[in-house]
Design goal:
This protein is of the alpha+beta class. It has eight helices and four strands; from the N terminus they run ααααββββαααα. It comes from Nicotiana tabacum (Common tobacco).
Length: 274
């Protein structure tokens, strides 16, 4: 973990270890998953209906569940054995790993299983192994498989019923019944739910339309003032104007005032003396 980043360990220690470390998982859940892939798969599975209105979304999810029930019941018919394919793959992998283990029986229920420099205890009476993978998944680990082979027992018989075909079919024994579409629903006597009344927000209402990110902020044909130097008519310096000038007031000369004074308005013919 430290090779990936020291901050990763600091973030993990902020959470309870029972939720991310298999060594502290409960043994009654029979699941050792530590990621959120199941939730993400379900979110991607309903990515189409979830952006619709409530009724249309529920109708889309209902149709997907109906199709999934059919697909899963057909999938069970393709099983080679009574054990689910994923559980079968894990069990076969553990059978291969059991070849490098050495077992010692105590003539009762206990076994000492050596794997390299490590030793694990397998107990047939409590169906446990100190490796804890057997209790977490309820699939015999390589140490339990080695002990089963030593007593000429079949490890397939000790795979939990949660991975059996009968249990899998129970999950899909309830069927979604067909219903009419929304046009044929009976009229409800309950009052209609109206949208909330508009509430005036504080402040001056905005008249301009909100522009998109890729939309130009200003009209075409007008140059931006970005990069233009601001000149102060009071202190004759750049970077600010007269209204934001913090320097003392400099009186202008008569020449500057005459240059900046507007011309007098033209006189009418009645005002011209004869």
């Amino acid at each position: 973990m430290n090779k990936l980043g020291y901050k990763i360990c600091e973030d993990l220690l902020k959470y309870d270890k029972e939720y991310w470390c298999r060594a502290y998982f409960r043994e009654d859940s029979k699941c050792d998953v530590i990621d959120n892939n199941m939730c993400e798969i379900f979110r991607s599975w309903i990515v189409g209906p979830r952006h619709k209105f409530v009724i249309a979304m529920l109708e889309g999810i209902r149709h997907k569940i109906m199709n999934r029930t059919i697909e899963m019941r057909k999938f069970v018919e393709t099983w080679v054995t009574d054990i689910a394919p994923m559980a079968r793959m894990i069990l076969e992998e553990n059978k291969g790993l059991s070849r490098r283990c050495k077992v010692m029986w105590n003539a009762e229920h206990g076994f000492e299983v050596d794997e390299g420099v490590y030793r694990f205890i397998v107990d047939f009476k409590t169906m446990t192994c100190t490796y804890r993978s057997w209790m977490l998944r309820d699939i015999p680990c390589q140490h339990a498989v080695c002990a089963f082979y030593d007593r000429e027992m079949d490890p397939d018989d000790y795979v939990s019923h949660w991975y059996r075909k009968k249990t899998f079919l129970k999950a899909y024994q309830h069927f979604i019944q067909p219903i009419f579409n929304m046009k044929m629903w009976p009229d409800s006597t309950n009052p209609y739910i109206e949208p909330p009344e508009p509430k005036p927000m504080p402040g001056r209402p905005k008249r301009c339309r909100r522009k998109a990110k890729d939309e130009p902020r200003k009209k075409h044909g007008k140059l931006s003032k970005k990069g233009v130097k601001i000149f102060c008519s009071n202190c004759q310096q750049t970077g600010h104007n007269k209204s934001g000038c913090k320097n003392m007031h400099f009186p202008r000369s008569a020449t500057q005032q005459s240059q900046n004074m507007p011309p007098p308005p033209p006189r009418s013919s009645q005002e011209i003396p004869s």
